[in-house]
Amino acid sequence: MGVLSGQIALVTGAGIGIGQAIAIELGRQGAKVALHYASSAAGAREAAAEINNLGGNAITVTGKLGMVEECRRIVDEVTDHFGGIDILVNNAGVTRADNFENITEELFDDVFHLNIRGYFFCAQQAMKSMEKRGGGSIINITSVHGYAGFTRHSVYAATKGAIIALTRELAIELAPKHIRVNAVGPGLIEVPRYADIPNYTTEFGNSLIPLGRVGRPKDIAPAVAFLASDAADFITGQVLYIDGGTTAKMALEWNQGDKPQ
């Protein structure tokens, strides 16, 4: 019996990377899991099969979360299949990097529609089932980009900051319904898309992190499972950064030639 036994979870963007790792961990800890995907069908099905092979219960659902009607349909599909939802992990998102002056209305809308609209309306729909079941837990995946600035990420950072504000707001609004809302902010987590970054290497990534290594999706998953569990029953409205010390480090690095006296 896992700590999440009897719980029903929906993880969005679970076909790859962080979302996939979260879904597998929730299943490993006993939850029934619905893995949402938009384009990563093979990864979602592979993860669902892994959960089922461990003796769990997992299904896949697909849809484009930038559309409100799709958010509602996906949540309802999971609710109909499993009988409800106790845990929602809003993870599906898109990153677009470009200079501020080059941002177009189309790019802005693409990022905001998925990264904010998807989170907002999936939570709104899942809330109905959670309230009927006596409560629940919503975990929003934000980013260190919501904490501090980094070049070429103006739109992405704006969405991640909005997710943090939304998390705190929903934590207060949904507290009377016994629905806890928290956020997890990953730092540099090496996911498949990093292979497309020119000149990126793991060694370079390691050099950027105070703890000396980049993160992996499996570094995020246990924290999400904890926030979904009864062990976190008194935690709501919080942001947990999992970043190897990135947000704790001052950006200013200045060798002043200090010498011992």
Automatic annotation (TrEMBL):
Coiled coil: none annotated. The keyword Transcription regulation does not apply. SUPFAM superfamilies: NAD(P)-binding Rossmann-fold domains (SSF51735). InterPro entries: NAD(P)-bd_dom_sf, Sc_DH/Rdtase_CS, SDR_fam. It comes from the Bacteria. Keywords: Oxidoreductase. Belongs to the short-chain dehydrogenases/reductases (SDR) family. This is Beta-ketoacyl-ACP reductase. The lineage of its organism: Bacteria, Bacillati, Chloroflexota, Ktedonobacteria, Ktedonobacterales.
